[in-house]
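Morning!

This is the sequence you dropped in the shared folder:
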Amino acid sequence: MAVTKVCGIETEYGIQTLGVVDSNPITASSLLVNAYLSLVSKRVGWDFEDESPMTDARGISRDYSLASEIETHLINTVLTNGARYYVDHAHPEYSSPECFTPREALLYDKAGEEVLRRSMEGASSVLGPGQSIVVYKNNSDRKGNSYGCHENYLMDRSIPFAKIVAQVTPFFVTRQIFAGAGKVGTEMSYVPKDQVPYQLSQRADFFEEEVGLETTLKRPIVNTRDEPHADASRYRRLHVILGDANMSEVSTLLKVGVTAIVLAMIEDGFLDQLELSLEAAVPALRTVSYDLSMRRTIELANGRRITALEMQSLYLEAAKEYALAGGLVSLGDEAEAKEILRLWEEVLAALEQDPMQLADKLDWVAKYRLLLGYRDRYRLEWDDPKLAAIDLQYHDIRKSKSLFYKLNVERVVADDEVGIAVSEPPRRTRAYFRGKCLAKYGPNVAAANWDSMIFDLGEDPLRRVPMMDPLRGTADHVDELIKGCATAAELLKGLGS
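The structure's back. Tokens below.
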């Protein structure tokens, strides 16, 4: 039986400074994170002791060095909701806590948006008149630079990585038909601009390999980073770097939920009979992204040609059988997983009939309809800078400025849930222990990371508490203990007993 698909989303936000002389994106990102920390009055550093970002799932030997995107001198902290909030190169990044279900991953992703909004508000009190920092939940600066929205899924270590690659790659190439955030034009220099006025995905232009370890150069469709942040003898973490940053809650729910279903099916052997390997996955990725008609075909390794919709339908049919066999329990909440399955089927049917029906659900459709209306009203060509500006404004997370928030797009989570998730951790993963310890014993927490916490009781040595199982440290496991321990010393004594 597939392991529970504990999951989470890491989002690097685009950043723009307005009215700031000699602005530096790293400085601006640091200001945002510091501004938020000053509001919540808690600062616990990130522990890099267990980081191993250069370990490759294919068993390729590499000289260890700290991954290029991790710079230990930049601000890097942990929040009481169990999330990580830090500066990643020139971007503020929010990494959600470990979540028990796809809907919970969506909820904590939306909580991340609220953290960034509050950060902007806090920064405004530090900046001078007429100065501001604006944050966008998008994936491209239109200057050839892309920043990521990564997903993480807990998987069974016993499943051969080559099998995961073979069975998930066709799914990743085609899931952009419902998970893409949409984008005006292309950043591929050799593609004539008039051939791609608009595409499904913000990220498709930036991938160059099918499989690999990199995340910022020669980006692969399947990333091989083997850093489980858990017991490596039992688990692996599939680090997915292909996805777009979604504003739409439905797109995010489908992106995470359907991917979790597919990974569970891979673990349980439900896709072993499907022959879906692609002849050339990277070109196919762009073919799908550039095809608003949903009619172009991509070539399979066996010579057969198939559309992205047909590919997704084959995965869907396997998932329906999987549901009948009881496999969806691995998504944490079977009823929720069945609803994701129903929504997946509904969306694929609508895409087949008329994608514009989904303007209230999917990002790429909502943005496309918005752009079409503006283009027709002012008789603009697709390469007009005004349309690129509208594209960007769609991703502004300020609710008063964002074009997304002016649209009637379907909600999945409520504002009051999001407000709670900003400060409270998920109850059904180890994030609960991390978050509650930070909230109650913050002054005694020297540092933390995904799989351990370090306590400082005022005397040597520091005390490390390992958290190698993402499904331990939940509210059911530790809530009464934490409530009954007034100090960190009492907590550690209780854990020892």
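Headline: The longest helix spans residues 102-124.

More detail when I'm at my desk.
O.
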